[in-house]
Amino acid sequence: MIILSANDITKAYGTDVILKDISFHINAGDRVGLIGLNGAGKTTLLNILAGELDADSGNVFVSNDTVIGYLRQNDDFTSENTVIEEIDGIFTELHRMEREMPALSQQIAEATASGNKSQQEIDSMLHRYDQMQEDYDRAGGYTYKGEIRGVLSSMAFAEDTYNKKISMLSGGERTRLALCCLLLKKPDILILDEPTNHLDIGTLKWLEQYLRGYRGTIIIVSHDRYFLDQSVNRIFEISNHKLRVYEGNYSEYAVKRKEIRENEIRTYQKQQTEIARQEEMIRRMKERGTEKLAKRAASREKRLEHIERLEMPESEKGRMKLHFKENFKSGNDVILAEGLSKSFGYGPERKELFRNVDLDIKRGERICIVGPNGVGKTTLLKILLDQIEPDSGRIKIGYNVAFAYYDQGQRLLNSANTVLEELKESYRLYTDTEMRSLLGRFLFRNEDVFLNVGSLSGGEKARLSLIKIMLSGANVLVLDEPTNHLDIDSKEVFEEALLDFPGTVIVVSHDRYFLNRIPTRILELENDGIHEFLGTYDYYVEKKQQIESGKKYLNEMAGASKAQEAAENTGSAEERRRKKEQEAADRRKKREIENLENRIAELEAAIEDFEAQMCLEENLSDHVKLAKINEECQNARDELAEVYDKWVEIQE
Questions:
Q1: Which of 130, 485, 516, 597 could bond 458 through an S-S bridge, CB–CB 3.0 to 4.6 Å?
Q2: d(CA 421, CA 424)
Q3: What value does the CA radius of gyration of the chain take, rounded to a whole number of Å?
Q4: How crowded is residue 175: how many other Cβ atoms within 10 Å of its Cβ?
């Protein structure tokens, strides 16, 4: 069933055409990945689909009663709510029912007891109460609190952050909170604009799994190729103001796109060759000057005029041209670090990021550092660059090492400069012509070079930073989330440049597609140090799973070994005492569990009996008795919930 369709959508800003005659349809349950170069019009199209922007021409049709949820790149939080208050605001209707149901139940009981209401009025109140209970259940009233905690936990919001003001959250935390709010609303169409920004690998995996089980329709704009592979079944590509639909995930799209592109070029070139051949024959016939050849030339001209000429395949927007070079080689030993640790804060607020970090990095290696958000990956890079002092440990930098640093926050750029001034400030030996030629290679053309750095998009700032690194001639590139703001084409160019670079690369990244191409080693940073994995991301995941399985096995073996050791040492009075205490505790726990389970069975039977009594014909006419049974049933439900909580708690 088609849930959304677009017909001949066109949008322009002045003379700058963004989208032209775009048409497509989306079926219920589709997972659509919307891709294209930065500036191609992806966000513009999302705004049109979400009803937040009008197209210049064309129409968007959405099925009746369809709810659209839209995650923008920049959140629109304006309140001074805390995290949990913002989440609770989603469930105002459930909170209203939670207030009204007990109040209505009390009214029914009082009306029945006092006799000041007619039978018809009481029946109406009972019907309204039953309907409210059904609505509450249907809206997830008995499960939403658990869902809130589950989603917040998966998005890295610990309980101690629930009362944190939104104004105090970082940009990444605000993005994750906006995503939490949207997922909990469960709209029919989920529109996500770059949802993977600021998510670590663990959270990305959870989001992929969540989206795979999502019952609605999903439209995702993302430059994360691995995420698209895991999450979508259709690709919509915007290129040169047009939209083309591909079935399958990103990897399947990449293969099909290459085949289609090559076929279009071959077909066009073949037709152009044939046209040129026919035109040459016509020219020669005319040169002969005979009447017979002139007629044949005219006949060929007519046939040539009626040929349906193919349009030249529209050239792709220029790709940036990037090549890293080193002005001189470093020594074989690049960085040696031992026992690094770092904490922030004082007293009880002091937070340890990591400890016991050892590194031994050699020339020519491509090292990728991974780990959860907040573990200190950026801090570690700054320690290696001597921008931050470690609390303990030592670092030895090798011979002839020259660093270049890519800062994910782009704080190394001067927002007051123009693009041209930013380059000239660092590299004064180049002429303006040479500078503009270099900037053209990175898609800063014509008047773009006079734009203020502060007005540039994230992708433009990323390209400007990469120019400066390329010109530095450094032999060690230290890169903090360098692919965050690059479109897919730019990522591919960047990856090829890193693979061709003869120097050393140290990079922090959550881009799993990137991690499957670039590293010779993956280093996982955790609180207790660095764990090393040779190879790329898929190998890292495989080894992690093996390690986790091994740990589980060792823990089981250790438990068995301890039990055997305890049995062998029963001669010890102390051991016998501890064993008896443990056995007594186990017996008490077992008895308590049995008692709770018996009580659960009793309450469930009682609730079932109460519900059966409420359906009996003689009770339906006795509203006093019916209200009393309903109250007893509700009390049993409340007690059952408490007993279940105790049962779960004692099992842990």
A1: 485
A2: 5
A3: 34
A4: 23
